[in-house]
What we know:
mainly alpha
Amino acid sequence: MKNNIKKYNLWSKKILLGVTLGSATLFSACQKDLLDTVPKTQVLTNNMWLTENLTDQGVNGVYQALRLGQMLYVYDSYVTLQGRDNSTLMNATATSSSGIFSSTWQSLYEGVHRSNNAIYGITNVSPVGAEKKARLLAEVKFLRAFYYYRLNQLYKGVPIYTEPIEWNKVDKPRSSEQEVWNLVIKDLTDCINEPQLPGRYEKGNSNFGRISKSAAYALRGKVYMYTQEWAKAIADFEQVKNLGHNLFNSYSDLFKGSNEQSPEVIFSIQNIALAGYGSDYQFRFGSRSAFGSNWNTYLVHPDAVDRYQRKDGVKFNWDDYIPGYNSMAPKKREVFFLRNNLTATEISNMEKKGLDMSLYLPTGNEQRILKAYTDRDPRLASNVILPYSTFIGANGATDQTFTSRWPYRQEFGGVFDLRTDIVPNFYYYPRKFVYEGANPGIPNREAGAYDYIVIRYADILLLWAEALNESKKPSEAVLKVNEVRKRAGVGELAIGISEQDLRKEIREERRRELMCEGVIYFDELRWKTLKETSFYAGNGIKEMWGGVISGYDWRGDQLYTWPIPQVEREQNTGLTQNSGWDD
């Protein structure tokens, strides 16, 4: 289905969307044709929606906006992921003129304006039948709600536009944060109340990936988490379950293409292995799997690794495996990560770095460090390439097994070390979502075929647990958390845990379960925990043992709310600025 491509029959052949991780998205010529059908610089014309085919293209253009510069999808909290280079958000250099703020604003409002055009065109111009018209309107209202949801998560109160406008007439003042939530809730409620919108699409349905009632319930429940209307959130999450969503039986296999339509997936962005219709998500996480550059845009932060408990549910502690580890200067710990049988030259190099080589075990160093990663929460090994673990990558056109070792050596005697372009440093690398093997069937690095999961049932279960706990029902909340932990293969939480302790456990569980999925960053903003999890003294871009390559610098609490971009304030002088961002 996904491999049969026709420009004007996108949905029936499973061509929808991809996600790119960079600050700009490259579109194929046929995509540009489709995108250009939604005007940017003039009021919507009646010509756009005159036929059913044009109506379908117009709606697809609203979906397509999901991919516009959406680097937010990988903005996990930097306690989970770390960029290879420090960002303006992390080194206190961000200003309201920084590109990330303006590009995000513009991309999300592009989605809003396409939605408004579609709502007008479907309602007033399109000749499609009443039942289909009702379903399409519900889909578009969900998408408009999603774009405003993202805007409100970040900027907290933005101008509300619900009608087609000219781009040079964006002159409305900001609405309050609550007013935006009210609009989002209204749009999602309209979706839920629409009889023509299916509850959900089953695996194999040609419409899988289109909006359903379960997606609307899930997103509305997420909004209620922001408004702290716990009972309403709980009711919506229960409806998601009633519509047939449940946990897939294998955590690690969930993120592979063969299972991308499992009942756990509630809302996903469809990708196929074709230039312009896929994503570079897999490439940014691990090009070592398919391309010669071995480039990684994103690394895994050591703190994220250390959050994974032992299988029995006990908190991980380095001192249990290497006594005195925690009290050592981070750079000195490198000695424990060294490979067996170092050469004399390698030993000399390590001594020059100031390592105490009396702690080195020439024939047992690898085995010692491996003990710290065995008997851990199995999600850790599913999500991260750990030291001295293997990864099936590419050696030309042949599958090749690589092992993550330090220090890196070229191939020797048929043994291959895992190589990235950051050879002088030793980092944890993502395994989750990353292709394996030499020929994953993708023509270039921007054409990943794995669907991007935006909302899945484990996310909903943990939010459900949070809402129950905040409703003074910790015993019920524990049961939801334990559903996730049981699937993961890790010890369950005890009934009777206090509300305060359970709040901490739920947050930690989300950080483990949803690693690399673009969810945790928004959680940290909502909980206002970003400073404590990411900006404590001594944190930054780190190698495995905690040595800081580039430090993080907390600019202030204004990081919990993004600034209104300066370029937008110059165009619309009625826009007020968020506190702390007067550059």
